[in-house]
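C-alpha cells please, single chain.
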Amino acid sequence: MRPSPMIALATMLFGGCLGSAQDDGDDNDPGAIPLSSAAIPAGATTRPITLQTAVGRQFVSAENGGGGALNANRPAASTWETFTLYDLNGGSLQSGDLVNLGTLDGHFLCAENGGGGAINATRTDPQGWETFRVVKIGGSGAAVTDGDQIALQTQVSGLYVSAVNGGGAGMTADRPAASGWETFVVGGNSPWRLVWSDEFNGPAGSAIDGSKWGFDTGGGGWGNAELENYTSRTDNVRQNGQGQLEIVARAESFGGNSFTSGRINTSGRFTQTYGRFEARIKMPSGNGIWPAFWSLGNNIGSVGWPTCGELDIMEAVRDFSVNHGSAHGPGYSGGNPLTATFKLASGSLADDFHIYAIEWAPNEVRWFVDNTMYERRTPADLPPGTTWVYDHPFFLLLNVAVGGNFPGPPDASTRFPQTMAVDYVRVFTR
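Here you go.
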C-alpha cells in the first residue's frame, strides 16, 4: 500500500511449562510409562519437529493448542504446526523410541484412550495416553532425521495415528496398521522465536484488541485515489468467533464516500526492527479490490513517506493468483518500487488461506508465500544514489482498499461485501 502523509507478549516458547498432575486413568494400565506427574523424566532429550502427511503433504496443526481435534490441513508449518518432541529414551531420535509431543503453549498430544475419538492437545501432564512409539517407515537404519517418514503408534493400545484422508475431519488413533494416511514426513523447525501475535480468538462480532491495534479512519483517497471511507465499526473490522479477523469492504454511502472498509495498524503499540513478520490470510477478490498486509517505518511522523520505508508483504489486484511483494523508499516508491511477484500454480489466492511473510535482516529482506521464497532484496538492488532505509523499527498494517491507482475502480462484476479473513498475525525474532 501507499500511505497517506500521516498515519493517525508474553513471549511463548516451544514446550512451555508443564502444569499440575492430571489423572487420566493411566496408572493401572499395563505397560503405562511411569512418568513423574510434574515433568518429563530426567534423561529425556528434546527437539523441534514438524509432521507432514506423506500423501497429502499437509502439516499437522495443534490449532492454537488443541481443545478441538488436531488436523492435518496446513500448507505450511508455523508455530502451531511445530511441536517439541520429548524422546523418553534419550539421545538422538530412533525408530522404536517412546515420545511425547508438546505444543507451543505447553500442552501435549493425547490419544484419548487409544483412538476412536479425535486426537487433541489438551493435557498438561503426559502419561500413557500421551505417549507414542516412533516407527520408521522405509529407509535404512534406525535413526530418524529430517525427511524420513514415520508412523506414530499409541503406547497403550498399539493403534496408529491417522490423518483421516489428509485432515479436515480431525486426526484419530484408531488404525491397526500404518499405511499411507498413517505416514508422516519428519521436519525440523526454524530458529525463529515468537515475540508478538494476535490469534483473533474473540467472540463473534467483537472488536479487535485495542492493546494491539489502532484504526486509520476516514476517506480522502489516502494518497492513492482510493474510494472507501475507513471506519472503526465492527461492520467493517471484527472478530468472527472462529479464530479469525474479518476486514469487510461494503458498498454503502458513508462520510461522502460510496464504500466503507477497514484499516488497522500496530503503530504506538508494537514495532520491531528485523525478524519474521507473517500472517495467514484468505484474501478477497474482484475488480477494484485491493487487500494488503504491509509495514511502515515508525519514523513516518518525522521524516514522512517514503523516507520512513515501506515493506509490502501481501498485495493483490486484478489477477488474484498473483501476490506482489515490494519495498518502497526514497527514489524507489509509488509506481516504481523494488518489487516481484509470486504466482499460484493454479486457482486464486482468494480460494483459501495462505501464509504471507517477510524475513528481514540487516541489509536484506526476503519475501515468502507458503514458505516459498520468491524475492530477495539488498542495498545492491537500489537505484543509483538512493538509500536503504530498512534499519529501524517498523509497524504492521492490514486493510482492504476499494479502488485506487493500483487496482482501478470496481465495476459491475465486483460483488460486495468483500471480506479479508486473517487467521493470525505473528512476529518472530532469532
